[in-house]
Specification:
This is Flavin-nucleotide-binding protein. The chain has one domain: Pnp Oxidase, Chain A (Roll). It contains 6 helices and 9 strands; from the N terminus they run βββαββααββααβαβ. The strands form 2 sheets. Strands 1-2-3-6-5-4 form a 6-stranded antiparallel barrel. It is globular.
Length: 240
Amino acid sequence: MNRSFVFHVSFQPDAEDPFPTTIPMLGAMGNFAYPSAGLDEPQDCYIHGYISARMANLSRKAMDDGLPGLPVCVSVAKVDGLILALSAFTHSCNYRSAVLFGHAALVTDESEKLWALELLTNKIIPGRWDQVRQPPNKFELMQTQILRVRVTSGSAKVRAGPPADDKEDVQDPGVMKNVWSGYVPLVERMGQPIPSAYNQLQDVPEHVRDLQEGFNEEADAYNDKLVKQVREDIISWGTI
């Protein structure tokens, strides 16, 4: 969740609607009561939405009806590479994914709302909140709404490793001599920062440079780990 910029938030728009709705939103994990809470401690999911959005209205209605909030499912997924195996049925991907279930409620406390806005801003670019024009004006705060998802359960699924072929295929000379197997890395990296048409600062701020360098270093390190496994590990189907 902390590595993904976009959270896909799903909910039932109406009891009579047969299809759920999924909206891509900006999101971040945090604990307003205990901001220093670690990954092994309870955290809420804060998501950004406009006050006129259908999801915000449904959440408001649920709270007015005495419910803890709108039931939602929040999911993220990242593909790290393509697994090319000897058989079409053992092709796969290296990936990381997570799904959270909980109730979304409007954040009405002003101090929590400002804290959440800072959390979301710094999730995208660490330290950015202190570098931009402050404070937010009344119009910005009125038009921007924050939803807090109290997480009740969740799960994660990760694949990180080499191709996993059937033993029979690996031991078949005809297959081995005619089919290429391996791994195609898919690495998400940040490019060089580009100034806007109206930017008046000559140099790229340090926190922006740090973001690009840190993000790319982390991405490359994780990819190097996966590539090392592909080159060195031999596994059988069903063991990864």
